[in-house]
Design brief:
The chain has 310 residues and is of the alpha/beta class. Helices cover 38% and strands 14% of the residues. It is built from 9 helices and 10 strands. The chain has helices spanning 4-28, 62-69, 82-93, 98-105, 109-124, 189-209, 220-226, 229-244, 270-273; strands at residues 47-51, 76-80, 126-129, 133-135, 153-160, 175-177, 181-184, 260-262, 265-268, 292-294. Strands 1, 2, 3, 5, 6, 7, 8 and 9 form an 8-stranded mixed beta sheet that branches. Strand 8 (260-262) and strand 9 form a beta hairpin. The termini are far apart.
Length: 310
């Protein structure tokens, strides 16, 4: 056995290696002041999250919410109202953290709704879906296309320009990903990075307007680029590029007919979450490819609108 003094250089070297590895991992995923959570490599948890800020469940929305609540007994369903949202943000990010401060100070309900889904999924993982969506196929069937490889994020296409000479009105990228329904594991680098980026984007927008977060009233386009599907799409493309080591663009996904796996992110074709649309080669609601139907009964886009007060 080596004398104690001989072990000291080995212990010191081991400590240095551990520190280097820890620092390297920390640089891979931005620190968003989680409460000490490690990077998770776990499957997508059986949790379903929905948000209801502005509309109490009405006869028009109750059947859609019920479709998620009753979809599978193994899934925990949570409908977040204003108070429950505040509680979950404080629990995971702490009242003094940058993310929670930004969330609590926001006056715009649409920005908070977008922001909240990212905050919750980054912290706890699971499935998020708007309250005007209806689950069509059992959730466990969504993963069947890649049973041989782990899936830790599900992202659906909401728009595909295909061969059209110009973008459809209201769309801003040749391929856009929807964020009315998405699924991801807790602490996934894609969502952690999204929270960081969206936090900065919200603060930047307020600074550019020279207003407090509580008075920020974004236009529809500003919502799309700050917290909405354009921002989400930019984050997804950036992550796919980092996973593959090459720049992933719309050209890699246009006309997608089958789910495609990039690392641990499964990209779903247009009909999975966006059937029944009048663009992108979308098929009717009754298509066998439909996993979730978006009814647009709770649509937020209003031409020229600004989204301010709570």
């Amino acid at each position: 056995m080596l004398p104690v003094i001989a072990w000291r250089p080995l212990v010191a070297a081991f400590t240095i290696v551990c520190f280097v590895v820890y620092t390297w991992l920390g640089n891979l995923v931005p620190n968003l002041e989680f409460s000490g959570h490690p990077i998770s490599l776990q499957p997508i948890p059986k949790k379903i999250w929905q948000i209801n800020f502005k509309h109490a469940p009405s006869s028009k929305l109750e059947p859609f919410i019920a479709s998620w609540k009753n979809s599978d007994a193994e899934y925990q369903h949570t409908l977040l109202d204003e108070q429950a949202a505040k509680d979950v943000v404080d629990r995971h990010y702490g009242k003094d953290a940058e993310a929670s401060k930004t969330y609590h100070e926001l006056g715009s309900w649409i920005l908070r709704s977008d922001y909240l889904r990212y905050l919750v999924l980054a912290a706890e993982g699971g499935i998020y879906s708007d309250i005007d969506t209806q689950v069509v196929k059992p959730i466990d069937e969504w993963y069947s296309a890649s049973a041989d490889r782990p899936v830790r994020a599900l992202v659906g296409i909401e728009y595909d320009q295909l061969g059209d000479p110009s973008l459809t009105e209201g769309m801003y990228m040749p391929i856009q990903f929807c964020q009315w329904t998405l699924a991801i594991s807790a602490h996934h680098p894609l969502m952690v990075s999204t929270v960081h980026s969206v936090t900065q984007a919200i603060q930047k927008l307020a600074r550019s307007r020279e207003v407090a977060l509580s008075d920020l009233a974004p236009t529809t386009e500003e919502v799309l680029y700050t917290t909405g599907p354009v921002k989400w799409s930019q984050e997804v493309f950036a992550y796919l590029s980092s996973m593959t080591g090459t720049e992933v663009t719309h050209q890699h996904l246009t006309g997608l007919k089958e789910p495609k796996l990039f690392g641990d992110v499964l990209i779903l074709p247009i009909n999975a979450f966006a059937s029944g649309l009048n663009h992108s080669g979308s098929k009717s609601k009754g298509s066998n490819e439909t996993l979730v139907w978006h009814t647009f009964r709770n649509a937020w886009k209003v031409k020229g609108a600004k989204f301010a007060s709570r």
